[in-house]
Amino acid sequence: MSENQSTATLFEYQRYPYVSSKTDSFREGTLHLTDKTIELLDSLNSKRPFLEIGRDSIKPLNYVGVVRANGFTVQILPKLFACESCREQRAMAAANLLKMLSHTENVPITEVDPVGLDLRKMNLFEVFIHLFAKSLLNTIKNSLKREYIRNSDELRVVRGRIDFRHHTNPARMHIIPCRYHELSVDNLLNRTLKYTCYLMSRTVSDFTTIRLLRSIVNLLDPVTLTPVSAAEIDRIAFSRLNRIFEPHIRMCRIFLSNSSLTLQASKVEFFSLLIPMERLFEEFISAVLARDPACFFGRDVPVRSQAVVGRLARDSNGMELFNLRPDIVIGAPRIEAIIDTKYKQLDPGDRKAGVSQADLYQIHAYAAKTGAMRCMLLYPEVLLEQKRDFVLPVRSPEGIDTDVQLMIRAVQLSHDLNRREGWEAFCSELREIVMPLISEQEPRRSTGSSRAVVEG
User: Fold this and answer.
1) How far is the CA of 105 from the CAs of 134, 280, 378, in angstroms?
2) 8 Å CB contact between 64 and 97
3) Which SS3 state, helix, strand or coil, does residue 11 take?
4) Counting CB atoms within 10 angstroms of each CB, which of 2, 137, 253, 365 has the fewest?
């Protein structure tokens, strides 16, 4: 991904100088931004802080994705390496980001073929649209959605029900007002897909992507091309018959609600697709573990994401409040272990490994409520330089004082996840990290352990 006049490739937690300029560009590691672009970035940042904007520098926070403002594209990649100066590392970071997204429901990416994408030339804006178009075209070819549409018309033969309220003129008794349902492709779901693809085809420059989008528009030729708002998209009801289109409609909503393009405009003035990296990291790890738990834990054990394991408090009426929802729960019905993924920079010189007190309180509450004997805080390796073990003294739901093992670990995301050897290396490392969580459980013991106890 080379630096050019229209795209800036930035990385999380890395500071970049910027200067005011008459044109937008990214040269030699410095952002040259117009007043209008800075104003648009400030406006988005006030709603969802993804940048730390100083007087003369900009530092991306823990969001990844793409922002297009005033014709200038800013793409933010995850910090997977200690240094991201080399072009090959940038391409791999983008490819790994897409691989992680393919394991989640953030965007409709079910397969990633970096060989077919020149990630050194295409920015994430173009890449997201290309993958969206490729996936949607295959889906439409296999299942063009038809729905029953309610119509009212004056006919010469009865169709559906006669509308007797309007069938009162004796001179027009041969004309029958009817209300009926017709199976049609011209429905809100398909109008949303067609309108979005039409707009996208006018914003991208890659010829292959344009061809995919135009093919979709041609397949939807019987569908009316008309503007669709985000409020209208929210009225689309999904069922087992059209559930396959839900991720594509989600992407359409993101595009239409975060861009200023219209049928009359010629370019996107503003667009954003930003994904919180901590959420993406959690969903990715959870999906990988749940896909083949026997591979990672030595036996088939349930792996659940964001499962409610209890409540933290009760009010005066006895109603339980405040859900306890660990990122990853292992085991059912008895919970054997808990993983909480964290995506934050730590201070390796801190005697508590930089782990925040709030994170310890949180994991302590999970252990106390579930009776899990092992817990883990899991970080990306680039944000954690050392692993540590702690002991949490916990009183179980049965009133027994126990020592719960807390492991602070990190997994490397800089393997080439789109190559077989890189993916196998990542899975092997992850298996080595999580396997001890459900090894033979040690007998419950009192908190009079000789190991160091975590202090507040």
Assistant:
1) 17, 10, 21
2) yes
3) strand
4) 2
